[in-house]
Request: fold
Amino acid sequence: MRRREALAAYGFLSPWIIGFLVFMAGPMVASLVLSLTDYDVLTSTEFVGADNYRELFADDRVRRSLANTLIYTVLHVPLTMAVALGLAMLLARAGRRSAGFFRTIFYLPTVTPKVAVGVLFLLLFNGQVGLTNETLARVGIDGPDWTVDGPWIKPGLVLMSAWSLGSTVIIYLAALQNVPRDLHEAAEMDGASPWARFRAVTVPMISGALFFTLIINTISSLQTFDEVYTAFYGSANQQTYGNDAALFYVVYLFQQAFQFLHMGYASALAWLLFLIIVAITLVQVRLSRRFVYYESE
Amino acid sequence: MFLRSMRTAVGTTLVVVLAAGCGGVGSSGSKSGGTGQATLTMMGFGTGDEIAKTRFDAANAAITPNRAQASEGSFNAQQFLSAVASNTPPDLVYMERRLLGTYAAKNAIRPLADCVGREKIDMGQFRPAAVAEATLNGKLYGLPEFYNNRVLMINDAAFADTGLDPATFTTSDWGRLSAAATRLTSISDGKLRRIGFDPKLPEFLPLWARANGAALVSDDGRTARLNDPRVVRALEFTVGLIKAQGGWASFKSFRDSFDFFGAKNQFASNQLGAFPMEDFYLNVLAENSPKVKLTVAPFRGVDGRPVDWITGNAWAIPAKSPHPDLACKWIKTMTDSGTWVAAAKARAAARKSEGKPFAGVFTGNSRADEVIFKDVVRAGGNPAFDAAVRTVLQTQEAGVAEPLTAAGEEFKAAWQDAVNRVLDGKQQPAQALAQAQQQAQKALDEANRGS
Reply:
């Protein structure tokens, strides 16, 4: 009986297992092997040992693209989390009907294709005629050339990334709605200020959601590709003006693989990114033990 | 042995999965449908206008009862690699000629000597510079299509505003050019309102290098010459032009705001004084702002002679094309002078019905051009466009292509990145080009290994 149940369980699990093996584990193992080769799809493969990894550590553009990506992540993740939390708290206070309306409004940009977001970035942040600088000019600020001036490209992209924080808002809203009201009432009766209640009640109670979005947003930031590629490298014309400040890690990986046909080297780049993500996630998980509260604890 | 089997099994999975994740795989693989008739597949070519559609239909008629099926969008390396890796290569690929070398060096496309001989293709009809751009190590890998000339386009309105004479404006005297650019530039309230002269960096560095008597690569395409002092000087001069017009950031932001392909383009809106540009832009202006006043002149080198850096696309046949003979017959018709003339007539008729002028089509086929500009393109409408066409026709006789290299993309990326570093203020021209020289030579050496 137990054996039959086990077989049935595996039967139900098999679509996922097969999908995982074919579309995830298989290509991952393949890329690990290919990272040890000189492989361009078109000619014979040559085993080169750790050469790709050695080259990778000597490659200036790897360092540059990694730095760009990390800077973007450090700016993007806290900003997204803070703004999303602020919006979610406003939504939590809104009436039921208006909350539904604003929830939809905040979430709508999330379904916008990232390619469109990349194009939108160029239009909104054009230094001469973009809406951003026109708005800044109305309050007397002479805005920078966001899309061309190296030091301003990443801040511009970070601001643009706020366009798609709808998912994070929804997660926080759900978490906020699960915070027991009696905890707030008890704190209020004890004379706690709104800030004290936020710090001592709200944040601990939604710390699980905060931790989840921290992990997810960090990983997606480290893998940023679509919008940056569209804005700066998507066409032959844009590639011509490729700015080092917009060279993100996955963009460089893509260039090596599909523009220069260095599949082996690109595979090594992919594995380095994988290891970096694993390391950062492990640190975050480790720290979470001190900051995240689970009701079952 | 182990690695070979890995390539077919695992490699295919990886590339296809990567490609699928990055946007999908387009049409590839030939079909025969059980009727004995073949359908040729291709990548990089769409039938979006009269020029393409007319020739496509003619080429299909030449292989009846077989036919070719058009694709959409420009050539995409990711799509092509996926097709090759999964053993479903297309019958034909249409790509920029400068890219042919990369695939030729890796034996991914066929040399066309057999095709030319078997189909008795008259190579004398093609312009030598276009053929040179499709030739690597003495072997022809593509039949040339368009012939994009670079000429100087001058906005008469901007010149009238500043009291300059378009007829005497030249790129041969860099001191005078610099002074004219400054005079033509308009800045008010701290904002750039008109670019005086746009040197079209980084993409036109090869043109400026040629103007200064240098080339970016040796004639055999094996030795980079990016650190040639004349190339360095060309970059110093052109970057200096941009700095004098407010610097790269505001220059580029302003240029990005142009309605480049629309009725309010930079000529119609008086936002640009002059720039070197590909000839196709004449048709854009003729279609969108037919009343604009412009002067077209040859781009001249420092020795005063016209310099016309030409580029274009070509048809190539993948090494594993399922129907190479049919593909050869098809591209023969596609690039033949008679086919071009029929296409030009179709375009002229379409323009006439819209009441717009037709500035001609400049092809890699000199015989076709002869007939097109003698019998199809009619003077009239705007005399400025008639004069412009005459100038391009004269200039294209001086056409020269950058030699084909085995590392097309990497070579281009090396010098373009160098120019971008200079424009962004991170490096000086000599330093940036020295770095690019090392990168480009390394890429060339690796790509030429074993050949």
About this structure: Chain B touches chain A through 47 residues (CB under 8 Å). The longest strand of chain B covers residues 191-197. The longest helix of chain B spans residues 2-21.
